[in-house]
């Protein structure tokens, strides 16, 4: 393959690990440094390669906590259902370490407060998010049966319920989806909105969108099971040709044919070492050609 022009590679601001994920990984590694039996309940973060790296250090990913008789169980960044959390805490042989992100906790506490607040007694709590995402399943568990999940505008249009609405969000939703659902519901209901989208998500989305507008190709790095990475890929694909990959071996040389610029970004659960591997692979591909890496700060 011949590249006729200089291939510029630009890296988005705010790519990779967010505060909540870094905290969860630090807690996990610190615990493994002190204790022998360390488990995470489900993957501690949504990145299969990072989870594998932790497994190599002896940290086991659990599906069924009942199988554990003793040791430490680390609870993932995006939370677990409140009754399961309570049950684990009751087992005195198990040390429960809650690695749920403070922003997720804030969303859980908002729902818990609204579900018990006497003034909100007759109100339904709308959770804007993905029905099958672990964070949303956990959020709903704090709502004492008052939560309804709405994923998109279509569902908002179909929604029929009684009383006023309190609306909260999964932390990794896009403001566009959140706001468009609010707009639809506001036409028929009295609503109060609690914006629980986290800033790390917003920062990554804005930076990815800005970069995608300025390049011929975007590569979004992160777990296919990561909600925030998938949304970055969606946002970028609305602006330019986009590939969502987990590892460097997915990169194809033909992607770079007839293009001048490539943008890179990564979800909040993507570790630096994977981003570096992908940069290296692009450099290898680009080594045969004229390649220049620049930072997003240089993008006009
Ligand atoms: S994306 Fe936001 S809510 Fe999720 S772990 Fe990171 S900081 Fe916390």
TrEMBL record:
Isopentenyl diphosphate binds at residues 46, 78, 133, 226, 228, 269. Binds 1 [4Fe-4S] cluster per subunit. One of its GO terms (biological process) is terpenoid biosynthetic process. GO terms for molecular function: 4 iron, 4 sulfur cluster binding; 4-hydroxy-3-methylbut-2-enyl diphosphate reductase activity; metal ion binding. Catalyzes the conversion of 1-hydroxy-2-methyl-2-(E)-butenyl 4-diphosphate (HMBPP) into a mixture of isopentenyl diphosphate (IPP) and dimethylallyl diphosphate (DMAPP). Acts in the terminal step of the DOXP/MEP pathway for isoprenoid precursor biosynthesis. Belongs to the IspH family. This is 4-hydroxy-3-methylbut-2-enyl diphosphate reductase.
């Amino acid at each position: 393959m011949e590249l006729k022009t200089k291939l510029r590679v630009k890296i988005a601001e705010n790519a990779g690990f967010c505060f909540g994920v870094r905290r969860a990984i630090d807690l996990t590694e610190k615990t493994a440094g002190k204790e022998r039996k360390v488990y995470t309940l489900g993957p501690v973060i949504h990145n299969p390669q990072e989870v594998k790296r932790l497994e190599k250090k002896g940290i086991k990913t659990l599906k069924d906590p009942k199988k554990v008789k003793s040791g430490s169980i680390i609870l993932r960044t995006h939370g677990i259902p409140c009754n399961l959390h309570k049950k684990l805490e009751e087992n005195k042989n198990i040390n429960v370490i809650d690695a749920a992100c403070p922003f997720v906790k804030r969303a859980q506490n908002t729902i818990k407060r609204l579900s018990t607040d006497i003034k909100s007694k007759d109100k339904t709590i709308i959770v804007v998010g993905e029905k099958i995402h672990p964070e949303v399943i956990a959020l709903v568990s704090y709502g004492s049966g008052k939560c309804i999940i709405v994923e998109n505008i279509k569902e908002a249009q179909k929604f029929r319920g009684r009383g006023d609405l309190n609306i909260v969000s999964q932390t990794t939703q896009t403001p566009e989806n959140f706001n468009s659902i609010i707009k639809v519901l506001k036409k028929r209901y009295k609503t109060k909105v609690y914006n629980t989208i986290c800033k790390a998500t917003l920062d990554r989305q804005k930076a990815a969108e800005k970069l995608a507008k300025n390049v011929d190709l975007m590569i979004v790095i992160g777990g296919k099971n990561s909600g925030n990475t998938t949304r970055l890929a969606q946002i970028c694909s609305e602006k330019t040709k986009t590939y969502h990959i987990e590892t460097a071996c997915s990169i194809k040389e033909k992607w770079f044919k007839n293009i001048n610029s490539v943008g890179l970004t990564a979800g909040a659960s993507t570790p630096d070492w994977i981003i570096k591997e992908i940069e290296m692979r692009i450099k290898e591909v680009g080594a045969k050609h004229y390649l220049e890496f620049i930072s997003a700060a240089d993008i006009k």
